Amino acid sequence: MSRTEQKRVQCTVASTRAAKRSFEQLFRTSYGPPCHFESVIHGGVCKWVVLFREHLCIVPFNAADEKKCTRIQTSDIRSLQLDRNDNFLFADEEVTLRSAKVHINYEEQHVVRARRASTSPVRRILAGRRGSASAHMEEASSIQETSVLSEGFHLFDERTRLWLYLHQMWIGNLSVQLYGWTKNDEIPDSRVKEVYVDMQKEMGVAKGIQNKVDLLDELAHAVRFNVCLKRCVLLQSPSLIQWITAELRKFAVDKWRSQPEMQGLGRPEVLQYLTVLLETLHKTLFQCWPVFVGPEGEDDLDKLLEPRTGVLIQLIQALWLPLVLSEELQSKDPQPALNVMHALMSVMYEISLLFSHVEARTHQEGGQLSRQQQLRSHICAATTEKAMERRVENLVIALQSVLLSMPSGPYKIVIAFHYASVLNSLCCQSASQLSKVVGANHTEDLRFVLPGFVSSHAEDASHPLEKKTVSLLQGLLHFFCPDQARRSSSEGAGIAFETKH
Q1: By CB count within 10 A, which of 190, 229, 382, 447 is most buried?
Q2: Which 3 state secondary structure label does DSSP give 60?
Q3: Which residues contact 37 (CB under 8 A, 6 or more apart)?
Q4: CA–CA distance from 30 to each of 25, 34, 57, 341, 429 (Å)?
Q5: Which residues contact 212 (CB under 8 A, 6 or more apart)?
Q6: What pLDDT is attached to residue 196?
Q7: Average pLDDT in the 32-57 region?
Q8: How far apart are CA 93 and CA 89, in angstroms?
């Protein structure tokens, strides 16, 4: 970086309030209101990075129109990496110890107008005449090409929330593609709140499992992309999350037979109901981070994660109740029980992301537990050692089924990613009761299933989420089976580790 560029960087952060007004004016029609914006260094100049729900924009402080902005759609990003070793040098030649660079590779489609010779018989005849203008006649055609472009900017702090939000946006949009979800039409917030109140009343008086399933299906479909509806489900009192938590407790393995609404119904209906409850939770928590942006949102998240009394802490404890039996996961028809486990792991993955928001905000406070430590402590506090062994057994059985038996396809990629992420967070960050249970009872299971999957997908993985899954599973292999991991690497089966963020 030149001396001139360094001096320009001394103009650090512009007025946040003024910036927000400018962004809302500049992007109102095509982007919607910004979810988050932060000052970064881009091309040696201090600029804003603005995050919308599906876009990232790099904006000069004095931008007057959209043409001066660099726009990247997060669904087009092919790779996203944080380089903690790439420190930025300021004008005073002091290196910031916390700065890091975000590297983005993304696809951009553009139309190229190509010209090809005409094959018309008349033009072929005319083309034979010397000097005829028709000899050079060509027909125009359009070809759509895709280029992979690179972009990058420096963060002032490697643990900034900008990186956290951007990373979660990217993973979320990749997941949307894999699930095949499509967006609903936009509904005014006032109407959303009215409909939610009506639905909540219906839920409270619903008779029978099927009526509840129908209402939850409707809610789950609507809540995937609607931030206002997510806010209602998560924060409005009386809490629907608490109601779902109570339902999970009622239909645990040791209690479901005593429920009045189960008269005439059996275990298949219970497993279906548990799956719908968990899928509703997953779609509510999916991409819910805009609900918790800003001081008011941060306070709301702190209340949800309050030890012992927080709504999400109570939910975590309910999730680790015995919802399925290992015998059901290994029966002739294990799919209903596996559906419960897959949905449960998706919910656990989304909850772990919320802990990371608290960690990003409080990492400078001394003695603050990491998100993995916090999550593990709440799980272990709610589970006896013997019960923990049974839950981990179910988890490992389900993981084996995903990696060995689930048909290849988009759904397998995203589900395997959830299992790998949750296991990596709960077991591999430091010694814990969970990692001890896995190490003591399931090392051979992991040794059997992980090397084959990692080696077969290391070279062939094309989707970004599949590559991250392989890297996370390789991390599990190194943690629990280091000898096997070394052998796989020496045979060329291993892949380079990705930095986990």
Answers
A1: 229
A2: strand
A3: 16, 19, 20, 23, 48, 49, 50, 51
A4: 11, 11, 12, 40, 42
A5: 203, 206, 247, 273, 276
A6: 93
A7: 83
A8: 6
C-alpha separations of 216 from 127, 180, 272, 411, 445 in Å: 69, 20, 12, 21, 36
3-state secondary structure of 270: helix
What's 498's DSSP letter?
P
Report the run of H or E that residue 101 belongs to, with start and end. strand 100-117
Length of the chain: 501
* Phi and psi based region of residue 45 (left: phi greater than 0; alpha: psi -120 to 50; beta: remaining): beta
**Rounded to whole angstroms, how far apart are CA atoms 283 and 184?**
14
Burial 335-352 (b: 16+ CB within 10 A, else e): ebbbbbbbbbbbbbbbbb
CA-based nearest residue to 261, from 205, 216, 328: 205
Q: Residue 348's beta-bridge partner residues?
A: none
**Per the structure block, which two tokens stand in for 294?**
């800003």
Which of 403, 404, 423 has its CA nearest to residue 466?
403
Tokens of 254: 């040791």
The three-class DSSP label of residue 181 is coil
User: Mutual orientation of helices 433-441 and 443-458 as an angle, nearest 10°?
Assistant: 90
Please report how many Cα atoms fall inside a 13 Å half-sphere around the Cα of residue 182, on the Cβ side.
Answer: 1
> What digits encode the pLDDT tens for the residues 62-121?
766 666 788 899 889 999 999 988 887 766 556 566 788 999 999 887 666 655 555 554
Question: Mean pLDDT in the chain?
Answer: 80
Rounded CA separation 135/125 (Å)? 9
Q: Does the predicted model carry a pTM greater than 0.90?
A: no
Between CA 261 and CA 275 the distance in angstroms is 17
Query: DSSP 3-state assignment of 109?
Result: strand
Q: What does the alpha-carbon distance between residue 313 and residue 316 come to, in Å, rounded to a whole number?
A: 5
Q: How far apart are CA 158 and CA 83, in angstroms?
A: 9
In this structure, the strands spanning 138-155 and 45-51 are unpaired
pLDDT tens across 254-288, in order?
888 888 887 778 899 999 999 999 999 999 999 99
Contact between 401 and 446 (Cβ < 8 Å): no
